[in-house]
Amino acid sequence: MAERESHLSKPVDVVLVGGGIMSATLGSIIRLLEPTWTVRIYERLDAVAQESSNAWNNAGTGHAALCELNYTPQKPDGSIDISKAVAINEQFQVSREFWQHLVTADLLPEPEGFISSTPHMTFVRGADNVDYLRRRHAALVAHPLFSDLEFSTDPAVIGEWAPLLLAERSGDEPIAATRATTGTDVDFGSLTRKLTDYLVSSGAELHLQHEVRSLKQRRDGTWRLKVADKSWNASEPSHVVDARFVFIGAGGGALALLQKARIPEIKGYGGFPISGQFLKTSNPEIVAQHQAKVYGKADVGSPPMSVPHLDTRVVDGETSLLFGPYAGFTTKFLKQGSLLDLFRSIRPSNIVTMLTVAKDNWGLTRYLMSEVTKSSWTKFRTLREFMPTADPKDWELITAGQRVQVMKSHPVKGGVLEFGTELVTSADGTIAGLLGASPGASTAVPAMVDLLERCFPERFTGWRRELATMMPSLSSGEWDTDAEFAQLQADDAEVHSA
């Protein structure tokens, strides 16, 4: 009966699979550009933002490359490459502009509910690291986006910026730090819920506890999705829905669904799952002494996700401190997934990719195994290196979200492991999905604008003017002048004072 009704009913214009920040962002942009389009969201859990977008499943860093050293690698000649840092910072500014537009238009509540001002710092120890940080600062501060970045090797100054880093620190080891007071902490869970509320209030349909089980493209180009109702009182265990466009923003579940869609573009892709943990404290006396996100430097040979950081987190209006991450390995692709996820993802088209990545990344495998076998005290000692006064009784170990790093085919190497995000779109633009992890949520808006340009090229020309109204930097390209940056800062200050 349901299938017959689907044949007779008009296809949904846009189906969003997954109730995370990516789907909520794309849906919001589309709603503003095409208010008459029908939008439907399917989320397999009983609420949105329960996986990677959940505030306790990520560090909440508004990734702007202000403190993350892996975005500023050192070249063989000793110079610092800031190109990736600039690109990520520009992308985050686009995200902030879009949020600002929604707040100004009364489509989102006040920004204090999901974003807070939190300085971003980098803290390093040892002469070589101090020298690197000094050169990194010199390279970045010459660009208008980083002109306010401060640098110091003075323990008194660093202690003033972040007292917990210096309290009872012994020895005469050289130290250095940079600080950007323009940094932010973002509650992506809260932001996702607010964006979803806007979508629903404007006519979109939200179906919780509904899981997309299969996708098949029909002759007319639309997609037929088989959807299972997982609620205990479901009147119809499954039904089908037809869609003109499908976006799969299901985090670790995206790879499997794109594979089920059988689009050629997903061939050669695999996923490498990595779990994480953080130490957390809500002790008000400790929390009051630290107002920053402080990133350190990963050990030699360690992957980017191992970078230690001590973060101020504001979730649902309450402030805590997180330290980590401590990585681990599981075969699940989602925190609430199956141990068979990794094995089910293996296909003839990606087996070479996955085997090559496994062969070439034994260092990562050893690192993950060492993390898994670390004792609680060993993990705590890592915090002590950052915060000498840390007391175990004040901290608890929490399980964070699940990351699935992208593995993709390579014409020479056979396969490579990527540590960013990857947008996969079909040739006809009727289906797309996002794979990967950090900086993910922080760059959701430009990623979704890129998706619109790739999937709706004929319509995108007509959308440019409206998109530029929402996000002015899209029309100017890059932040090349102090005037452009000053305008962004002024606009942002206006939003936060509203």
SSE arrangement:
Layout: H1 2-8, E1 12-17, H2 21-33, E2 39-43, H3 83-104, E3 115-117, E4 120-125, H4 127-141, E5 150-152, H5 155-161, H6 163-166, E6 175-180, E7 184-186, H7 188-201, E8 205-208, E9 210-217, E10 223-229, E11 238-248, H8 254-261, E12 270-281, H9 284-287, E13 293-295, E14 309-315, E15 318-328, H10 341-344, H11 351-360, H12 362-373, H13 376-386, E16 396-399, E17 403-410, E18 414-418, E19 421-425, E20 431-436, H14 444-455, H15 457-470, H16 473-476, H17 482-497
Parallel strand pairs: 1-2, 1-11, 2-8, 4-13, 11-20
Antiparallel strand pairs: 3-7, 4-6, 5-6, 9-10, 10-11, 12-15, 12-16, 12-17, 13-14, 14-15, 17-18, 19-20
Descriptive notes:
Its EC number is 1.1.5.4. Keywords: FAD, Flavoprotein, Oxidoreductase, Tricarboxylic acid cycle. Its cofactor is FAD. It is a single chain. The protein has one domain: FAD/NAD(P)-binding domain. The radius of gyration is 23 Å and the shape is globular. The strands form 3 sheets. Strands 4, 5, 6, 12, 13, 14, 15, 16, 17 and 18 form a 10-stranded mixed beta sheet that branches. Strands 1, 2, 8, 9, 10, 11, 19 and 20 form an 8-stranded mixed beta sheet that branches. The protein has 498 residues and is an alpha+beta fold. It contains 17 helices and 20 strands. 36% of the residues lie in helices and 25% in strands. Mean pLDDT is 88; it is low at 1-8 and 478-498.
